[in-house]
Design goal:
The protein is an alpha/beta fold. The protein has one domain. It is built from six helices and six strands; from the N terminus they run αααβββαβαββα. The chain has a six-stranded mixed sheet, with helices on both faces. A hairpin with a 2-residue loop joins strand 1 and strand 2 (105-113). Helix 1 packs parallel to helix 3. The longest helix is centred in the first third of the chain and has 20 residues, at 51-70. It starts with 30 loop residues before the first helix and ends in a 13-residue tail after the last helix.
Length: 255
């Protein structure tokens, strides 16, 4: 799981595994089960797939398994990464999962179209972070508030490393997208900047964020259906129209 999606139970403002070694259903993480489930999903996704693409997806699956050996990783999280990876691979994207961006950040997915000539930069590159919607027991009395802060932190922290930034999430989860990130920097008000600075400071302090100089942006979301192996990409406005925030955040502030 990426650094932004990790918060320790002992000290919510310090980074650590956000679910404290538990799967998203609360069961102890078991490496053998993780490996088996991810393999089963890979077989499902590659059924009838071109051999070249299937091999690329297998390499991604192996990368996720290798990462799981070193740190606790939710199978729910990895399953969504694998489904998105298939969607991108067959569209001729080069996909790198658990990609090190430097500065202590590791993004879930970095995807790009390989450049034509040697030494030229890749084209159409973007970063995606997966949001499962999981909330640990330490946030049982403020789950929505915590999820708002986590979404804002992900957008602010990761989007600066790529021209485009997306969040991937399952259809049963609704991601809170701060309106501040949909505006040009000069249109962002002092009130909303103060609000997001204060909210994120409640949950995160290492490193702290300063939305006064924010360059955060988000282009869209990928709705990931692991059951069917399908992905639907949409721009932010389309997502917010289809998944209105009032269903999860009935008293949400327009920030």
């Amino acid at each position: 799981m990426s650094a932004v999606d990790k918060v320790s139970k002992a000290d919510p403002k310090n980074q650590g595994n956000h679910n404290n070694g538990l799967s998203d259903l609360g069961r102890p993480v078991d490496y053998a089960d993780y490996q088996r489930d991810l393999k089963l999903l890979e077989e499902k996704l590659t059924s009838g797939m071109d051999a070249t693409y299937a091999e690329k997806l297998h390499e991604i699956e192996q990368r996720l398994v290798d990462v799981r050996k070193k740190k606790k990783q939710s199978i729910n999280h990895s399953a969504m990464i694998l489904v998105v990876s298939k969607h991108l691979v067959i569209r001729r994207y080069k996909v790198e999962v658990e990609h090190d961006l430097g500065d202590g950040l590791v993004c879930d997915i970095y995807a790009y179209r390989p450049a034509g000539g040697q030494g030229t930069k890749p084209t159409k590159d973007f970063i995606m972070e997966i949001e499962t919607g999981y909330v640990g027991p330490e946030y049982a009395i403020d789950p929505n508030k915590f999820l708002k802060a986590r979404a804002a932190r992900k957008i602010e922290s990761y989007s600066q490393y790529s021209k485009k930034f997306f969040i991937g999430t399952p259809p049963h989860n609704i991601v809170y997208i701060p309106e501040m990130f949909l505006k040009p920097r000069e249109k962002r008000t002092e009130a909303e900047i103060k609000y997001w600075n204060g909210l994120c400071a409640e949950y995160y302090k290492n490193p702290s964020l300063d939305f006064n100089n924010s360059k955060g942006h988000i282009e869209g979301l990928y709705v990931i259906n692991v059951d069917s192996g399908g992905v639907q990409s949409m721009d932010v406005n389309s997502y917010m129209k289809k998944y209105p925030l009032v269903t999860r955040f009935p008293s949400w502030k327009r920030f």
